[in-house]
Every structure is written in C-alpha cells, then in structure tokens.
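U., I forgot to send this yesterday:
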Amino acid sequence: MAFYLYRIWVAAGKPKQGTIFNDMKDAKYKYKLAVRDAVRSYESRFNDDLFDHLLSKDMQGFWNFWAHKTCKSVISVDSIDGKTDDLEIANAFRDSLNVCSNSNDSIDVDIIQD
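Result:
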C-alpha cells in the first residue's frame, strides 16, 4: 500500500501538502512502524529463546543457539595472488593501494605481528 501511494504521490508531482501528500505520509509512517515492530518481535523471540535455554540450564543448547544466530562462517584463505607469507601479502596490499607513496621500504614486521 505504501509503495502504491508513493507512486501516486510521485505521479502527482510530489506535492508538499494536500490529500495525496497526507495519504503518502500516513502510509509511509505505518510501513516504518510495521518494520520496527517486526524487528522488535524478532529480537524479542531471539532473547526469549536464549532465556528459555538458560532457565532450563541447557548450556549446550544455549551456546548452540547463540552460535547459530550470531556467528558467521569465517572463510580462511591460504594464499593471495600466490603469496603465502604474511609480509608478502601485506606488501602486495600496500602496493595495490599505493598506501606508501613511492617508497620501496617493506612493511615493518612488528606491525604484522600485532
């Protein structure tokens, strides 16, 4: 409904007042409220599920649920452009972004080991 009224508002020349403007603003407000309520409902359900695991003292279930909902898969890369050494990769990155202006010095090893 909000999209439909928005398109009517645009077709009418985007008036700043009047019935079309008010209808578009009302629909936009109701849409934003619905999105906000959906987000809050999801977060509440997430919190309730975590709380249920804690109340039942199901720590394995708690951490499994936590990991499933919050942890993202991390992709491990062994080499970049055929380089496997951290220093080589860092220098290649520096060269590709021209971070060090015309400097042929290699990146300090202490920076990489931090």
